[in-house]
Amino acid sequence: MSPESFVMKAFTMAEIKNYTMNFGPQHPAAHGVLRLVLEMDGEVIRRADPHIGLLHRATEKLAENRTYLQSVPYMDRLDYVSMMMNEHAYIMTIEKFLNLKVPPRAQYIRVMFDEITRILNHLLWLGAHALDVGAMTVFLYAFREREDLFDCYEAVSGARMHAAYYRPGGVYRDLPATMPKYEITKNRNPKEVEKLNANRQGSLLDFIEDFTKRFPKYVDEYETLLTDNRIWKQRTVGIGVVDPDRAIALGMTGPMLRGSGVEWDLRKKQPYEIYHKLDFDIPVGKEGDCYDRYLVRIEEMRESNKIISQCIDWLRKNPGEVITKDNKVAPPKREDMKEDMEAMIHHFKLFTEGFHLPKGEAYAAVEHPKGEFGTYIISDGANKPYRLKIRAPGFPHLAALNEMTQGHMLSDLVAIIGTQDIVFGEIDR
Amino acid sequence: MNIEWLDIVLESFWILFKILLIVIPLMISVAYLTFFERKVIGYMQGRIGPNRVGFYGLLQPIADAIKLMFKEIITPNKSNKTLFFLAPILTIAPAFAAWAVIPFNAELVLADINAGLLYVLAMTSIAVYGVIIAGWASNSKYAFLGSLRSAAQIVSYEIAMGFTLVGVLMCANSLNLGDIVEGQKGGLLQWYIWPLFPLLIIYFISAVAETNRAPFDVAEGESEIVAGFHVEYSGMAFAVFFLAEYANMILVSMLAALMFLGGWLSPVSFLPDGILWLFFKVGICLFFFLWFRATFPRYRYDQIMRLGWKVFIPITLVWIIFVGFMMQTPYKGMFH
């Protein structure tokens, strides 16, 4: 072997190659079914290629074969941590078509449950994000509070997660006067049960009010574990920075956009329902890193809590209808059906044929905990949509993952997935 | 002639018996340490932890052990089979071997050798080979990343840990663990925790890093590299890694108790010295391990390196020089 070729060989042997690594879908930090193909240079990520579709359930296509009302429960299952918010966007699109007037009490109930849902979502995000970064206690603390909020869901709709509570023209029923209570079982003695039921003696509103009073203290608890923790800061400050222009260009919305310092919130900029009557602030970040987005979401939980207590005050003072009287879209009362022929026919028509939307198209969006969640319906005048398009906020966020993780380490990737608050129900639909 | 042979055989059996006397209680304490961990962390997180198997869940570790024993050990297709099975053995052997020189009180020690401290240091360092080989033999990228991280981490923290031990050895003038404890005689104020306080802190943090426990568990890094070096191990092979990790936790806590907290010595003169003091001190150290795990987020790999090289090693060096300097002054009584 000549000296040159020997040298050449030595060099080719020493050539360092990037390697690809399969991250997920069976991975503890994959948030469900995220699959990433990573191109790694040691521990440093050169390219992150998200593969989606593992949770595809064809929601949009299914909706084309069902009446408008039958699709409501499918919406719950899109982003399965902010159930009622998904329904809200869909219901609002239908209301836009029909120019329906929603009773103010229903609007307040919706806003209250939207904010409860926002807290639910942010609690899960906080727990999962902290768990990804290695702090496991926050997760269990967050789930302690989620339990109470799920009880609210259960009290109002009968289901703990997939509520199917909102209806075109209002909500399914008024807030209940009693809360479901714990029962004495083999594993729960009477004393324990009495303690658990202490704040469940009154109505649902009493229970929620009690929760809003306790909640700020809980948020302080999470913050003592994270906000000033040096390790937490080292892991999140300066990680996954997105500057404001890029954030807009990438189609980011919600806390991802506000974390970068862009003051954009549909509740303020395009107020729907009764948000314009409520007093709340929009927290914005400065640097656009994981830490800022963390602070933004923590603050949003506090603001949501404020909104909920304002709604409670109003709802206490103003009893009334919770769904429109227009029996073309909302079912008549059961008692009326016994005597009134017209009501009977309405009921039959509504639950067999459903209602028709006029020919045309409409888009409505809500400020979902993850960003702008909207549904776009094209109607050809039939009792089901010609086409339903769902605008999921998580989709553009995931698309930005590659850009956000460039040059970061593997551990940071996990933090960035956490900060994006990804839920595959809505991305894969 | 025959009598001599008999003596040797009897002597060997006696040593073997003493080894069992250490290893079996150690295995049991490892099992119950896992139970203790789950209970403590459970209460810290507003849960109750295991409470179904046996009275208050006390049989849970036994149930876990039986489950792991009967699980299949899966070997990945393209793994290096020999190394794959050698790795757990290489991890557990030093974790147990190090216990040979640990004194439980002034008389109760298997091997009362003069280089005890050095021997312990050597044994804890060897353990990293098991981790590296496990990661290599598994032929998995996750396992490989885990073992690389672990190697870098243990090597860096070994240095900081070694330097803290230098401080102790300067104070005690001996490498024999029994003599180190005896050097702290005379009540709470004579313990090395006071003159060597910064070294104790660094020793303890390095110990957490050495044993790959949170917040330094990057080698396992559940949310990043799934389970790190032992991602491909199952059944008993996994259990052996687990056993080694917890045995090492107890070992480093034991060392902390012996070197800084006066070992079996009583903190006050009116109470007798005894082995219970030692266990109590070890228990406190172990509680800190669990407390850390419930509280802190995980460091990133490069941040751990930075902490080890740029913070701990300089601090220990400065403190050792300080101790050495003080020993030449009239205040040397403080440092023995």
Class computed from helices, strands and strand pairing of chain A: mainly alpha
The total beta strand count of chain A reads: 8
- How big a fraction of the residues of chain A is strand? 5-15%
Task: Give the helix proportion of chain A (percent range).
Answer: 40-55%
Short description:
The complex is a heterodimer of chains A (429) and B (336). In chain A, 49% of the residues lie in helices and 11% in strands.
Structural write-up:
The complex is a heterodimer of chains A (429) and B (336). By secondary structure, chain A is mostly helical. Chain A is built from 19 helices and 8 strands. With 336 residues, chain B is an all-alpha fold. Helix content of chain B is 66%, strand content 0%. In chain B, α1 crosses α2, α3 runs antiparallel to α4 and α7 packs antiparallel against α9. Chain B starts with a helix and ends in a 9-residue tail after the last helix.
Question: Main attributes?
Answer:
heterodimer; A: about 425 residues; three-stranded antiparallel β-sheet; 8 strands; B: about 325 residues; mainly alpha
Chain-wise SSE layout:
The complex is a heterodimer of chains A (429) and B (336).
Chain A: H1 3-13, E1 19-23, E2 35-41, E3 44-51, H2 59-63, H3 72-76, H4 83-98, H5 104-133, H6 137-157, E4 166-167, E5 170-171, H7 190-196, H8 204-226, H9 230-236, H10 244-249, H11 255-258, H12 266-269, H13 290-317, H14 334-339, H15 341-352, E6 360-368, E7 371-379, E8 387-391, H16 394-399, H17 401-405, H18 410-420, H19 424-428
Antiparallel strand pairs in A: 1-2, 2-3, 4-5, 6-7, 7-8
Helix pairs in contact in A: 4-5, 5-6, 5-13, 5-18, 6-8, 8-13
Chain B: H1 2-44, H2 60-70, H3 81-97, H4 116-137, H5 141-172, H6 177-182, H7 197-210, H8 222-225, H9 235-259, H10 275-295, H11 301-327
